[in-house]
């Protein structure tokens, strides 16, 4: 942290800052410039924040130099992390591989889920997605099958061998969802549901944390810090589009998020082009963009009959587009030095 004194600050005002910092157990280093004096602080930033330095006479500005998140920051963890998913440690999401995650937006019936899971498997995806608890904008929309949906997902995993990622929307449901799923998803609408973040932080299952609709990178990483702070560092971040003034797409895929968040954090970054675009014809082009900017995985919605889907049918891929996407997931990542261990076939 750096305290920038106002031009013309008096020496006793600088001394008062130094004394207050030292009294809080910190060290202060003074640099005197021609016009301004700067005091560099070394010690506990959280303790310094409680000192109200900004309000002291002669203080112009207090600038934070280190990041407010610690456990998920690159500053303290220079190597990119790999998160391992599945009972047999079968899927690795991280810098060395590229993973394709596919499945239905929602678990509607056993048959529909098994069909979509088979589509994912046939295309070469190595993880299955699907929502049993659906956070819907309308209370009248299909809310998901709950526990029955989790059981269907577990059966789909049995049949295909694909580990499952599924959303949890309530802290009380976390133990139950963790029992059935291989990875817990925190959806966009819950990115800052702090009790939920703490609850998934307390279980021993990896977590996919989707970016909030209007969340900054710092807010997103602070949300991840809530999970990490409870002891769970197996976190992957998911960029799924943000809300902008544009209405032609459901959301705007922020491709900058991938390299930017990779620079700020050691956590892997997944891109969900389906929820970004809201239109199936954009999903494959956006997935290609995600690969090009260095995403560690893409996650897409698929459905055997999107016209009958109870949730997000317009963005669900048919089998042919999924095959096209899988081909891009096999061909492009090696050009960037990645293996394609997360795509089979
Ligand atoms: C989902 O992945 O099913 C979902 C609801 O996504 P989001 O939270 O990104 O809207
Ligand atoms: Mn959806």
Structure description:
β11, α7 and β12 form a beta-alpha-beta unit. Helices cover 33% and strands 17% of the residues. It has an eight-stranded parallel β-barrel with strand order 7-8-9-10-11-12-13-14, surrounded by seven helices. The protein has 345 residues and is of the alpha/beta class. α3 runs parallel beside α4, α6 packs across α7 and α10 packs parallel to α11. The radius of gyration is 23 Å and the shape is elongated. The structure holds phosphoenolpyruvate and manganese (II) ion. The site of manganese (II) ion has 4 residues, from loops.
Provide keyphrases for this structure.
single chain; 345 residues; alpha/beta; Alpha-Beta Plaits; TIM Barrel; 8-stranded parallel beta barrel; 4-stranded antiparallel sheet; elongated; binds phosphoenolpyruvate; binds manganese (II) ion
Task: Set out the fold topology.
Layout: E1 2-5, H1 11-23, E2 27-32, E3 37-42, H2 45-49, E4 59-63, E5 83-85, E6 91-93, E7 99-103, H3 110-123, E8 127-129, H4 147-160, E9 164-167, H5 174-180, E10 183-186, H6 194-201, E11 207-210, H7 217-229, E12 235-239, H8 257-264, E13 269-271, H9 273-277, H10 280-292, E14 297-301, H11 319-331
Parallel strand pairs: 7-8, 7-14, 8-9, 9-10, 10-11, 11-12, 12-13, 13-14
Antiparallel strand pairs: 1-3, 1-4, 2-3, 5-6
Bound molecules: phosphoenolpyruvate (PEP) and manganese (II) ion.
